[in-house]
Amino acid sequence: xxxxxxxxxxxxxxxxxxxxxxxxxGRRNLDGFLIPRADEHQGEYVPPHAERLRWxxxxxxxxxxxxxxxxxxxxxxxxxxxxxxxxxxxxDTFEAKHLMDEPPTRxxxxxxxxxxxxxxxxxxxxxxxxxRLRKAAEAAGGTLVPVDTNPLDAxxxxxxxxxxxxxxxxxxxxxxxxxxxxIRRIASDLMSGDADTAVxxxxxxxxxxxxxxxxxxxxxxxxxxxxxxxxxxxxxxxIDERKLDGEVRAHLGNVVTLRPRDELGPALDTLGxxxxxxxxxxxxxxxxxDARLKAAGAEVKRGQDPCELPKAIKNEAEVxxxxxxxxxxxxxxxxxxxxxxxxxxxxxxxxxxxAKRLEAFRAETGELKDVSFDTISGAGANGAIxxxxxxxxxxxxxxxxxxxxxxxxxxxxxxxxDVTRTIAIGTPGAxxxxxxxxxxxxxxxxxxxRFPEGTSxxxxxxxxxxxxxxxxxxxxxxxxxxxxxxxxxxxGPQRISKMGHVPLKxxxxxxxxxxxxxxxxxxxxxxxxxxxxxxAPVEGGERMMMGFETLTLAxxxxxxxxxxxxxxxxxxxLNAYHARVREALSPExxxxxxxxxxxxxxxx
Length: 604
Prior knowledge:
The chain is of the alpha+beta class. Helix content is 35%, strand content 19%. It folds into 3 domains: 11-155, Creatine Amidinohydrolase, Chain A, domain 1 (3-Layer(aba) Sandwich), CATH 3.40.350; 168-306, Creatinase/prolidase N-terminal domain (Creatine Amidinohydrolase, Chain A, domain 1, 3-Layer(aba) Sandwich); 313-592, Creatinase/methionine aminopeptidase superfamily (Creatine Amidinohydrolase, Alpha-Beta Complex), CATH 3.90.230.10.
């Protein structure tokens, strides 16, 4: 099993740990400290030794920040975690705030005393973030000061050691392009952008560029490292050399110079002393790197990570791989959905039972490398917690008359999957059918969208919400995120959301996942992954249009569909999708599962 269901976080520990941190800050003559969820790579998943926010507060979500001052503290989370934070954090010690509606910068302006020194670890905050935080501190009459060593680490007595998992070559049959060719291509872009060197800090960019994978963080095959890419096509990889064996050294060959992780600082000094122009991404690069380059005399140029967009545009091998991964995954999901439909109405099945069984079905494929994130297995009211993670303390039974939301994914060598299904246990009520069908209408609106080149996800986001908006309903998360190729299940720069302003390109993979959540009642989400298709003519049209090909293959629960709410075109889409699911998955299913699938995908 790649998941555990114990939760070591204890809200009762927050008060004592905050006190220990304040004592350490006092010894350093500091008045406050910022604790982000991020590590020095700014990834969604961090290794155990970097789970500082969780250790301090008990909150184990994938995004957030805490601010600890001498006499007060606050924790900031986004809309996915507003319910979760109240269950995991001592709210007498940490005020819970909405990350967007009441951001840390505003709280700092209102609560930081005049003359106070607010400290931060420059490895854990981006260039952009530090600029915003400094402005807030100064607006309050205080100062933002970097620390050489993290004061929280000084009081975390049993902090784990950094990971040293082995690095593995990623085969060309899945990557589709040799590392040397990628390096030359990106280096050429650097030259045209008038930069001598780019600093790469995002492990997924490094893994993609060099065709390597690792196991340093949960559920995402990343080797934590830094890299420098030079305009002459030479690259340097800064990594703990205990992670490297002869195979990966041979794979990297003469194109990449391998250097110990602690040589990054001196290498940045060398660039500065030579007067080089160095590209850094202010949205992802640690401010420590920016400060080191400037101190050494480099000309720092700010721009997007040069690997981010090319990585997001999948080549033919990557798209073919993800299709194969979804076909394999779809069979496992179908076996799981049949099991739920058969066993859950009898009683006795819990959220943990369901998550374990789903992972077991995927493991039976013989190709599962990991889950792509902790399975969201939410029965009844727990389904309304958008990023709910079941533990032995929260584990609930799947009860007849309730909804069950399961959001899960897998890591296969040929692709990463992410799929959500909402299932009626027994007979659903009229309200649940209405809400589900409105979510389905939004899902179909994205799946069938046609749009010209240059269209961004922000322009499409309303397609997924319209049926909900007409009933005065909405959901507090984006409609879609990018997905990697045996990499991160959440990747940029593309997304379908109000903030998704990057134009969609053919080959990009995004999720299509509108939802609806009734706190204390139930949650609904329907998620498939889709790949952006190239521009093509539209019959009778004047302009070429792009669209989406749905990759995910799994039945949508017809018991929750209120057909009277669907247009003829929407019903046709659902029937065609189910026909495709049936045709694709049936050949390798046993007779009993095949018969169940026939009924589950019947035309309406």
